[in-house]
Design a protein that fits this description.
two-stranded antiparallel sheet; 9-stranded mixed sheet; single chain; 27% helix; 7 helices
Length: 254
């Protein structure tokens, strides 16, 4: 990066460019550099790391509620990052931010999250990336603590960088920031419950509900830290190899 240029920060999310969360994260990002917003044109929660291959992608210039120019893409969060990388940016970003998501992306939620997947895609492409989420689903939730946590983590990453393949996943409760803690991803799952119903044509359909279940306890877990009213920062990676088992099992002949 040229010494005469401010860092270029790409901001994305999975709630769409109109979301209050992305407005707040954009405000934070503008303190640290030049900002480009390239985000889905509609709600894309829980799409995970899906990408669009069966239809064309379109990128349209829009105005965010804050008045900032942005680009809205008719695809997933991962699509937005891929398209930004290959076609939409005249220089490559120094940092990619995704969020602020409305709803926690701690524990098993990391797997399903479009917000985290946008940051992970940026990491795959070689950019330092941070995902930021608020545990409160209310779009009117107080995001000040999330913003303060994001600010501190952005400063850390711009100063220190990140190891290859590592993304930082930040989660915070609504309200003022109490503390910011390094954490591990909690072992957790959803116990699915499907509400079976019948439509007016007497055809069955199913609506997923379910409950979040924490499978371990510990003071250094993302879910536990958030429950204590603090913000968590979890270093995650897209390498899905079970390294411990691999080193053990490779001694065996198949």
């Amino acid at each position: 990066m040229s010494e005469t240029l401010r860092p270029l920060i790409l901001v994305c999310n999975d709630d769409g460019f109109y979301s209050p969360g992305i407005q707040k994260l954009t405000e934070v990002a503008q303190r640290f550099g030049e900002v480009r917003v390239i985000a889905p044109d509609r709600q894309q929660s829980a799409v995970g790391h899906s990408i669009t291959i069966s239809q064309p992608l379109r990128a349209n210039k829009v105005k965010m509620p804050s008045g900032l120019d942005a680009t809205a893409v008719n695809g997933t969060p991962a699509d937005c990052i891929k398209l930004a990388h290959d076609k939409l940016m005249d220089r490559k970003p120094d940092l990619v931010l995704s969020g602020i998501n409305h709803g926690s992306n701690a524990g098993i939620n990391i797997i399903y999250s479009g917000t985290v997947s946008a940051a992970t895609e940026a990491t795959i492409l070689g950019y330092p990336a941070i995902a930021v989420s608020c545990s409160d689903f209310d779009e009117d939730a107080d995001l000040s603590g999330c913003a303060d946590a994001a600010s501190r983590v952005i400063q850390f990453v711009l100063k220190n960088g990140l190891p290859k393949g590592v993304t930082l996943n930040v989660n915070a409760p609504a309200g003022p920031l109490k503390d910011l803690v390094w954490t591990k991803q909690a072992d957790s799952r959803y116990v699915e419950e499907y509400d079976g119903r019948v439509d007016p044509f007497n055809r069955p359909y199913y609506w997923m509900t379910g409950k979040f279940e924490l499978l371990e306890n510990g003071s250094d877990l993302d879910v536990s830290v958030i429950d204590e009213g603090k913000a968590s920062v979890t270093p995650i990676q897209y390498d899905l190899t079970a390294h411990g088992f691999f080193h053990e099992i490779k001694k065996n002949v198949l």
